[in-house]
Design a protein that fits this description.
This protein starts with a helix and ends with a strand. It has seven helices and 13 strands. The protein has a seven-stranded mixed β-sheet with strand order 7-6-5-8-9-13-12, with helices on both faces. A two-stranded antiparallel ribbon has the order 1-2. The protein has a two-stranded antiparallel sheet with strand order 3-4. The longest helix is centred in the N-terminal third of the chain and has 23 residues. The chain is about 30% helix and about 20% strand. It has a single domain, classed as Rossmann fold (3-Layer(aba) Sandwich). The chain has about 240 residues and is α/β, with parallel strands linked by helices. Bound molecules: zinc ion (ZN). The site of zinc ion has 9 residues, from loops.
Length: about 240
């Protein structure tokens, strides 16, 4: 990494932390709690898209669920691991920094938050060089998602796990270019999504060699916890294991 990019990252991080502290002062209290940054507030921030964001780290519902899931179901941080985060968010970086056992590495095709600028369809890492990988709501933006899934499988060690998540919003997977204008407006909806996924997405994970288990973690949590942590009730987390 060159020194000007490094300096830019340090300055960017400083501004991010300053803005986070300023935002948080407007929501003092202990009614809700963020599982990403660990801070408590009077309430979450609400946007026109009905997303409840943490006033400090700006986490959204599915990331707060993910952090709680990692701690309670995957023993995250309990054992030493090299962890790859694809397309990092600041809220999740803050979460990972709490764990000295986790060697955190992030990549993105353009985000300045990432440690390395890299295309997920062609990762510049050795085979089996990570213990775990996170690819959270990324593949819907990637031209060749099957290739990206094969890359995740390749860099993961045998016996390792990946959390690979996409929005499942259709009865079957369909590329943007195959859709009618009606489908683009009402099914795909997002300008930057290249396809809408159906349940057959899981076949793409299996084709690469993964063994899947889909967790109903959030449905097992008491209502008080769902409300306090502002968790996504729709998200079913898919754990992809690479056979040992
Ligand atoms: Zn937070």
């Amino acid at each position: 990494m060159n020194s000007s990019r490094n300096l830019g990252k340090v300055i960017g991080e400083g501004f991010r932390i300053l803005a986070a502290h300023v935002r948080a002062t407007f929501f003092p209290g202990n009614k809700v709690e963020c599982t990403c940054c660990g801070r408590s507030f009077s309430r979450f921030l609400y946007s026109p898209y009905m997303t409840a964001r943490c006033p400090f780290c700006m986490s959204i519902e599915r990331y707060r669920l993910l952090c709680k899931f990692l701690v309670e179901e995957m023993d995250f941080g309990q054992v030493r691991m090299r962890f790859l985060d694809i397309a990092p968010l600041w809220c999740f970086k803050l979460f990972c920094r709490q764990f000295t056992n986790v060697e955190y590495v992030s990549v993105d095709i353009r985000s300045p938050l990432a440690d390395y600028k890299m295309d997920i369809q062609s990762l510049q890492f050795d085979d089996e060089s990570f213990d775990a990988v996170l690819c959270y709501h990324v593949l819907e933006h990637v031209p060749d998602d099957r290739k990206a899934i094969r890359e995740i499988f390749r860099v993961l060690r045998r016996g390792g796990w990946a959390l690979v998540q996409v929005p499942i919003e259709a009865s079957e997977t369909k590329e943007r270019e195959e859709m009618t204008p009606y489908e683009i407006k009402n099914v795909l909806r997002w300008d930057d999504h290249l396809r809408s996924y159906g349940p057959d997405f899981f076949d793409r994970l299996k084709e690469a060699g993964f063994v899947l288990s889909i967790s109903d973690f959030v449905t097992r949590l008491p209502n008080e916890e769902v409300e306090r942590f502002g968790l996504d009730l729709k998200e079913r987390i898919t754990v992809c294991k690479k056979p040992a």
